[in-house]
Design a protein that fits this description.
CATH superfamily of the largest domain: FAD/NAD(P)-binding domain
Bound molecules: flavin-adenine dinucleotide
Number of domains: 2
CATH topology of the largest domain: FAD/NAD(P)-binding domain
Strand content: 25-35%
Order of helices and strands: EHEEEHEEEEEHEHEHEHEEEEEEEH
Shape: elongated
Structural class: alpha/beta
CATH class of the largest domain: Alpha Beta
Number of strands: 19
Amino acid sequence: MTDIAVIGGGIAGLSAAIYACRAGRSVVIFEGNMFGGQIVYAGRVENYPGIVSIMGPELADDLRNQAFALGAHSESRHVTGIEVHRDRKIVICGDAEHEFRSIIICTGTESRKLGLKNEELLTGRGVSYCAHCDGSFFKGKTVVIAGGGNTALDDGVYLKELCAKVYIVHRRSEFRGNPVTVKRLERTPNVEFILESEITALLGESELQGVTVRNKKTGATKNIACRGLFVAVGRVPKNNIFLPYVRLDGNGYIETDDEMRTATDGIFAAGDCRRKKLRQLVTAASDGAVAATKALEYLEADLKSAVYS
Ligand SMILES: Cc1cc2nc3c(=O)[nH]c(=O)nc-3n(C[C@H](O)[C@H](O)[C@H](O)COP(=O)(O)OP(=O)(O)OC[C@H]3O[C@@H](n4cnc5c(N)ncnc54)[C@H](O)[C@@H]3O)c2cc1C
């Protein structure tokens, strides 16, 4: 039986795999999308200790190569559930089941949707959740950004260089993100803020043609013709598939103690998917290392109890 299943190949999962592999344990990392996780979509990263400046995708590549060079195995599959049968932990991927002695959950978060009709249909056809991935498709065009935090503002900084016109629609009267970036965007001729407003409809049948925006104070609506909509309204966890083996807080994050233990012996959680104050690369890497160390202790104890029973 493989020692450890790591679910999620972001920085938390890859860090956990690096620690566990270096201790001689067998590890399989399940990744349903892209190894590297969220950071693949980031621009320049300048707050990871020891690395002055690096592009997100490059950091993701280095981490992935490091984990695989140390012997971690990969399963490019989306995990749909888990089961626990005494000391056996089952990872379920649709019809397939894989057996492990312990599990480290590192599923991070995913982009929050606006919840509008046709949003799913138009995703990839004008609607995007990643300006750095898709911005170049909209060179010279008009685009709208939904959101008011740092991600929305950073998207604005990136897209203003590529696009003819960038609208930023935010539901409050002030942005939540960095005031310096707000000032910078305010002074940019091809950027326009639409405040105290929300997007209420997506226009277009098979391709995005525009959005309807409603002013929350006056109730007045207007249509903005655009080819791209970048949604940057936060991120949400996706941990329900691990119930009832983990406990979730009111926002859906996994409850752990300081040693990354969940409600079930031998199941750990690390990174953005767990309840914590700061969701960043450095804390995700640290969580992954702690979770792996605790999983190693669990495997040792498990082995001893098997020998003496
Ligand atoms: C645009 C952007 C810029 C950022 N910039 C910075 C920065 O400059 N500095 C900084 O410190 N932090 C930054 N962050 C935050 C940082 O990226 C996250 O805190 C960090 O990546 C969290 O790592 P993680 O491994 O916990 O989760 P994630 O990176 O979210 O990785 C989780 C992985 O699990 C996979 N997964 C999820 N569910 C399943 C499943 N059921 N089956 C299989 N696989 C699954 C996902 O596909 C994903 O690859 C940024 C985030 C974004 C979005």
